[in-house]
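User: Teach me something about this protein's shape.
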Amino acid sequence: MNKLYIKNMVCNRCILVVEEELKALGISACAVHLGEVELDEPLPQAKKETLAKTLNQLGFEILDDPNKTLIESIKKLLIEQVQSEEIESHFSISNFLSKALLKEYSTLSKLFSQVEGVTVEQFFILQKIEKVKELLFYNQLTLSEIAWKLGYSSVQHLSMQFKKVTGLSPSQMKAMSDFKRKPIDKTH
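Assistant: First, the predicted structure itself:
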């Protein structure tokens, strides 16, 4: 199985966009997931360069560097975890990533911090806060339900972390009828 790793694929819409571009270029893919494309056969270099150029114009990047690929895998796993809305209150990022990627967490954490300029934990918190904003915006869950779904030990913990990141309490954010969410792939 031949795989391409693609940076900045963070949602189902990204998957659809990449699928459309592959189809437009006549590239056959077995599957397209967040951050990766499984190809039926190896991609000729000229076609890979054309795909790279097309994807770059759409804000994506084909990754050839194993370290960048690993970082995108970390991001993908954490984003998927947040999007699942099934984070246990005793969720361990280090155990989760080590088990999923079969690497020592200290290695993953050091590489991530060096390249991204934030720790894995900070990235995860930012993703959770963006999800809280989304859930507040849709106004379908109580703050207590949101805290439970995203693995916070209490509403107070969620509120303190939310205020530290955004400068506002969740209730202040909720009261703003036109607050703007930041795209999930923009962390700094």
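Now, about its shape. The first strand starts at residue 2 and ends at 7. The radius of gyration is 18 Å. If you'd like, I can walk through any region in more detail.
User: That's plenty for now, thanks!
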